[in-house]
Write a structure and sequence with these properties.
297 residues; alpha+beta; Ribosomal Protein S5, domain 2; 6-stranded mixed β-sheet; 13 strands
Length: 297
C-alpha cells in the first residue's frame, strides 16, 4: 500500500487579471502547503475504485466522478483501490480537491512505476491548482496557475485555519469580482529569511477575491475580524476563493492558545491549528542548487 499526503494549500496572496479569451483569468499568487491535510491510500486492485472516509466524507457523497478518479483515468489507469481520508472541508479555498487529485497522480505513478516527466502537463489539464499541488512546496503561481516558481527559502510558520461552514462557489466569486490588482506585479526572488521578511512583502499584496466573497457570505468578514483580534495574530487573510481564512502566528504556543480561544467563542466553526514547514533549495556537495525541498511534508 502507498500513502500520499494531500496537504492544504494556502494562497498567501492572490491577484487576478482580466478574463482571457479562453475563459481563464491570469493570476499571481504565493501558494504554501501546511502540515495537515487529506490522506490518500492506494493499493493494487483488479479495477479502479474510490472510497471516502473521514470527518468531511459526507461532502463528497454522490460525487461519482470526482477529481481523484479523473486524475487516475488521466494516467490511463490500471486497477487500483483508492481510499481517501477527507480531513479538509470541501470546496473551501484551500485546494482540498486539487491536493487529492495531485496525491492520486503522484501515488499512482509510484504504484505503477510510471515516468513522472509529463505529470505537470496532465495536472494542468485537470485544474488550475493541481500543478502547484503536485509540487506541494511553496511557490509563486502565474498564468492560470500552471506557471510555477519554487521559493528559494521560507521560514516555518504556525498558521490557524478557520472555515465558518458556508459554501462560496468559485464561479460566483469571480462573477462578483469588481476590483482587480492585475497579474503584472514584479515578483521578488523568493528568498524569505524570516517571518518578518515575508510579512513585509505580503503587506504590498492582497487577495482580490476576498471582497466579492465577503459580499456573498458576510460571515467571512466575521472570521477575518475574529482572527485579526486574536492575541499574537500577525496577518489574517482569506485563502483562494474562500471561505477558509487563515492567520499567521509567531509561535506554535500562541497559535494553539488562539485556536482554543476561538473554539470556545465559535464552536460551530472548523478551526485547525497547523504550520507551514520550513523549506528551501537543496544544495549538493559543490553548492549547486538541485531542487526544492519542504521539511515535514
Amino acid at each position: 500500500m502507498i500513502s500520499e499526503a494531500a496537504p492544504a494549500k494556502i494562497n498567501l496572496f492572490l491577484h487576478v487579471g482580466a478574463r482571457r479569451d479562453d475563459g481563464f483569468h491570469p493570476l499571481q499568487s504565493l501558494a504554501v502547503f501546511t502540515a495537515m491535510g487529506d490522506v490518500l491510500e492506494i493499493e493494487v486492485a483488479p479495477a479502479l475504485s474510490l472510497a471516502v472516509q473521514g470527518p468531511f466524507a459526507k461532502g463528497l457523497e454522490g460525487e461519482g466522478d470526482n477529481l481523484v478518479l479523473r486524475a487516475a483515468r488521466a494516467l490511463n489507469s490500471q486497477g487500483a483501490k483508492l481510499t481517501l481520508t477527507k480531513n479538509l472541508p470541501v470546496a473551501s479555498g484551500i485546494g482540498g480537491g486539487s491536493a487529492d487529485a495531485a496525491a492520486a497522480l503522484r501515488g499512482l505513478c509510484r504504484l505503477w512505476n510510471l515516468d513522472e516527466a509529463g505529470l505537470r502537463d496532465i495536472a494542468a489539464g485537470l485544474g488550475s491548482d493541481i500543478p502547484a499541488c503536485v509540487l506541494s512546496a511553496p511557490c509563486f503561481m502565474e498564468g492560470r496557475g500552471e506557471i510555477l516558481r519554487p521559493l528559494l527559502s521560507l521560514p516555518r510558520m504556525p498558521v490557524l485555519l478557520v472555515n465558518p461552514g458556508v459554501a462560496v462557489p468559485t464561479k460566483d466569486v469571480f462573477a462578483a469580482l469588481q476590483s482587480r490588482s492585475g497579474a503584472e506585479m514584479v515578483l521578488p526572488q523568493g528568498r524569505f529569511n524570516d517571518t518578518a521578511d515575508l510579512l513585509r512583502f505580503l503587506e504590498t499584496t492582497r487577495n482580490d477575491l476576498e471582497e466579492p466573497a465577503r459580499g456573498l457570505q458576510p460571515v467571512i468578514g466575521e472570521v477575518l475580524a475574529a482572527l485579526a483580534a486574536l492575541p499574537g495574530a500577525l496577518l489574517a487573510r482569506m485563502s483562494g476563493s474562500g471561505a477558509t481564512c487563515f492567520a499567521i502566528f509567531a509561535d506554535d504556543g500562541c497559535c494553539a492558545r488562539a485556536a482554543e480561544k476561538l473554539k470556545r467563542a465559535q464552536p460551530n466553526w472548523w478551526i485547525a491549528p497547523t504550520f507551514v514547514p520550513e523549506s528551501g533549495i537543496v544544495h549538493d556537495d559543490v553548492g549547486q542548487e538541485i531542487g526544492p525541498t519542504a521539511d515535514g511534508l
